[in-house]
Amino acid sequence: MKHLEDRKYIIGAIFVVFALIFIIRLFYIQILSDEYAIFSEDNVVREETVYPPRGLIYDRKNKLLVYNEASYDLMVVPKQVKSIDTNAFCALLDITKDDFIERMNKAKEYSFYKPSIFEKEISAIEFASIQEKLFAYDGFFIQTRTLRKYSDSIAAHVLGYIGEVTPKTLEKDSFYTMGDYIGKSGLELQYEKLLRGKKGKRYVLVDVHNRIKGKYKNGEKDISPQAGKNLQITLDADLQKYAEKLMRKKLGSVVAIEPKTGEILTMVSSPGYNPNLLIGRAIKKNYPKLAKDSLHPLFNRAIMSLYPPGSIFKLVQSAIALQEGVITPNTGFACNKSLVGCHNHPYARNVREAVKMSCNPYYYQVFKRLIQRGENKNIFIDSRIGLAKWHDAVLKFGLGHKLGIDIPGEKSGFIPDVAFYDRWYGEKRWAFSTIYSLSIGQGEIGVVPVQMANLAVIMANRGYYYTPHFIKQIEQLDTIPQKYTFKHSTGVDAQNFEYIIEGMEAVVNEAGGTARRAKIDSITVCGKTGTAQNPHGEDHSVFIAFAPKENPQIAVAVFVENSGFGGTWAAPIASLIIEKYLTGKISNPQKEKRILEADLIPKSEHAQRK
Amino acid sequence: MRNENNIWYNIDWTTIILYLLLMLIGWINIYAAVYDESHQSIFDFTQRYGKQLIWIVSALFLATVILLIDSSFYTTFAYVIYGIVILMLIGVLFTASEVKGAKSWFSIGGFALQPSEFSKFATALALAKYLGNRSSQRMITFKDQVISAAIIALPALFILLQNDTGSTLVYTAFILVLYREGISGNILLLGFLTVIVFIVTLLFGPFSIGVMTVFLAIAFVTLTYHGLKEFFIAESAAGVLLWIASYFNLPQKYLFFTALALVMIYFFVHLFNNKLNYRKEKRWVAFIVMTVLLFITSIDYVFYNVLKDHQRTRISVLLGEEDKIKSQIKDLQMRLDTLPTTDANYTYYKQTLAEQKQSLKDLQKGALWNVKQSLIAIGSGGFSGKGFLKGTQTKFNFVPEQSTDFIFCTVGEEWGFIGTFIVIILYVMLFLRLIFLAERQRSTFSRIYGYSVASILFFHFFINIGMTIGLAPVIGIPLPFISYGGSSLWAFTILLFIFIKLDSERLFVLR
Ligand SMILES: [Zn+2]
To answer: Do B62 and B131 lie in a common domain?
Structure first.
C-alpha cells in the first residue's frame, strides 16, 4: 500500500466484517432457528400429568365396590440427574446399586427428557421419609397416583383389574403414556373409556436446580383433569358374596339375573381370586401364580366355559315343540328305554310330567317329531328341513350366539346346524337317528352358564329376555347402552310356557320331582335339573330355576363340575341363592351347612395342585 | 485558544454518548440478570445492580478527572505509568489470593482491584510513546518491531503467570495497531488466519479448516497473480470439488485433501516470491468478501448436514468433544464388561474410565454447558425478546456468570434480535468513530493510542460476544462498559477518556 493511512479502511473493514458475522449468526439463532426456544422451554418448563381419579363402581344398592387409594410414584428425568450419592439414595429406597443402574438405564431408554417411573407405589409412610430427603437428588420427584381397591374382595371376574398399559396399546392409543394404568379385564376393560376420565396437565417452572419456581404462564396452559365417570352396576354385592361363599371348594359357576330387566345380580366363577391381588405392584408377583394355577382361577367359567346343557335343554325342546304344534300339552309318550336310557319313573302323560320326571325317551320322540316332519319322503332331506327350522328356533333362546353381555371374553356356545352335520357326516348322510342325542341336550351342543341363566330368564318371562348386562347407571348419563333395553322374543307363545312351568314347579315341589332339594317352604321355586356328561370324569351337575312362580324376581343357573346328578348339589345351591335374595335369610341352616362343607374338587386336581 | 481551560471544550460527544448508552444498557441488563423479587429497589447496594450504579457514578467521576488533567501528563509519564503497572502485576503474583483459579486481584480493605485491567491502557501509552518517537513515520524498523513486541509482551507475560489466559490474549489486539503503523500485512493476515483456524477447528472440527484453507489459499493466489476472473473460476472449481467430496464418503475426502496439499504448496512457493505487489485493494476486498461467505457457508454446512439427524443433541455436538468422550466411555465400559477382573488391563481400563467420566462431567459443567445455555438463552429471545425481567434462562440461573462474562445472554434473551443488533451496531459505531478520531490526530502518539483503544475494545467485543453465540472459544473476558465489575469499568473508562482528552487537545499538539 502506498499510504499507511489507507490501512484504516482495512482495520475498519475487519471491525465491520466481524460485526456482520455476529449479526448473521444472531439472525440465524434468534430468528431462523426455533430450536433454542424449545430448548429454553425444556429447561424451565416441566410438564406434569395430573391424573384424574378413575371412576368408582357401586353395586345395585349403591354399595361401593371399587374405589381409589392414594399411592406415590418416584419419577426420574434422566437428563436432570446430576452426580448424586448413589449409596445413600439406594439406602433411602432400599434397593441395590444394580437395581439403581438398571432402572436408570430403562428410564434413559424411554426418554432422556421425559419423566419415567423409577419406583412405583411408595406407601404413605415411606413417602414421608423420602420426600424429606429428595431435594438433594436432582432429577427425581414424586408423583401422586391412585391405586385401585376392591371392597370385600368379591366379583373379581366381573370387575376385572387394571394394569400397566402394554407397548402395543401405547402405539395404538395416544391417550396413554408409559406407566399408565388401563383396564385389563371385566368391567374395568369394558368401560375403560368411561372410567379413565381425562388426564390433565400442569406446567411448572423449574430453575437450574430443578426446584419448582411457580406456574408456567400463571397456569393458563394447565388443563384440569376430568374425573372418570362413576358406574352403578346391577350386581348385588351381598348376594355375590354369599354365592361365592357357597361355591367355595367347588368348580363351576353361578349366574343370577333379574328376569324383568336382564340385570345380572350375581356372577360367580369358581375358583376365583381375590381382586386385590392384582393391584399395583403386587400384580407382577401374583399374576403369574394365578395364571399357572391348574384350576384356572383367572378363567371366567360363567361366560367362557362351554358345557352340554343336559336335561335343562328339554325346556327348550318342549317350548319349540308346543309352538310348532308337533305335540300338544297333553301329548304323552311311553318311557321306551330302548330308544335312549332313562331312570325308573311313571309314564309321562303330558308335557308337565315329562318335564317333572325329565323322561329321556319322551324327548326322543318330541325331537323326532321336530326333525322328521314328513315334509319330504327322503328322511335325509326331511331331517335337513327339520334341523334348519329347529336351529332357527333354538337360536332365539339366546343360544348358539353371543348374548352381548358387557364384560369381554364371552363365548358364543354352539348349536349345530345343517352345515355342521354336512361337514361332519357328509351331505344327506345324516338323519334324525344320527343326531338324536341333541334331544336331551347332549352331543354336539355347547352352552355357557350365562346362557343357561338366560334360559331360566326366558322361562320366568314366559318367552322373552333382555340381554344380560351389568351396567345399571352411568354418572351424568340418563341411559345405558340401547342393546340392554331391547326386548328379545323367542317367538313362542306365553301360554305354551305355562305348561312347561307347571312341570318346573313340580320338579321342585312335588314328590317324584328331580330337584326336591331346591324346595323352599315360603317360595314357589320353579326349576329344572340337568346332568352334563363329562367324558373325563364325574358328570357335571346343572340346575336352572326362577322364583317366585308368579311375578318372578330372580332367575338363576348353577353349574357344578364333577358333582354328578343336578339335583344333588346344583339345586340346593340355587335354592339358597334364591331364598337369600328374596328373603334375606336362610330358613334351612342344615341345607346351607351341607353346601358349605362340601368339597367337590376332584381328588386328582387337589393332588395336581400340590 | 479560547475556552482552553474548559474541560468540555472540543471533546467528542459522539463517543461519550455511545459510552453512556453502553453503560446504561449494561446496567439495565445487570439488573435483569440478578433480579429477584425480594430485592426490587434499584438502589439496593447489596445487589450487583446497586453496586454497578456506584461503579458507573465513580467511573463518570474518574472520566471527569481524566479530562481535567492536561494531556501532556500522559505523554510525559507514559513510561512511568507503564512501570508502575508492571510492578503491580508482579506484586499481585505474590500477594493475591486465588479467585476462580486466577491470581489477579489486589484486595485493599474489602475493595478488590485487578491490575491486569489497568495494564491495558498503560501498555497502550508506552507503545504510543515508543512508536510516536520513532524516526520514520512511514515504516517500522526491525528494532522498532522487537521493542514494540517487548512492550506488549511484558505485561502479557505477567498476566499469563497469574493464570489469566483470557486477559493475556487481549494483547494480541495490538497487532492491529502495529499493522496501522506499518508492519507487513502478511503478519496481520497470518494472525487473522491463526484466529480463524483456531476458532473453526474448535467449532467445526479439522475437516472444515481444510475446506477453509483451500478457499483462502485459492483466493490469495489468484488475486495476487491473476485477476478476478481467475479468482471466481478457481473458487467455483474448488466448490464443485468440495461438493463432490462431501457427496461421496471418506476415501474421496482424502482425494480432496490431496488437492488441498497441492494448492498449499503452490501458495507457499509464491509467497516467497517477492513480486506480490499489485492489485492489493482488489485483493483485500475480495478476501474479506470470501471470509464472510466462507463463514456463512461453513455454519450452514454444519447446521444442515452434520447435525440434522437428531435435533435434541445438536448443541451437544457443536463442540464435538462431548460425543467423543461419551463414545470412549461406552467403549471402555464394553471392554470392562467383557474382561475378567483378573485381567492385567482391568484396573487400567477402570481407571481410564473413571478419568473419562470425570472429564465428561467437567465438560458438561464447564465450557460446554455454558455455551449451550448461553446459546439457548440468546436463541430463545427470538426477534423481540421475552421482555424485560422475563428471561427464564436468566431468571432461573441457567446461564453462568450472567452479569459478568455472559451478560450478552441477558440482552439476547430479554431484548431479542433487536437488542443484540442494537448493541452490536453501537459497538461498531464506537469502533469506527475511534478510527476516525485516531486518524485526525496530528501526533503519532495520539493516533497510536487511539488505535490501541479501538483494538482492545474490539478484541473484548469479539471474544465476549463470539463466545456467547458459539463462534469463539469460552474465554472469560468482560464486555466493555456492559459487563458487571468495577475494575473493568474503571479501566475501560480510563482507556477511553485518555483518548478523548488527547483528541480534545489535538489542535495544540505538534507531531
Ligand atoms: Zn323315562
So the answer is: yes
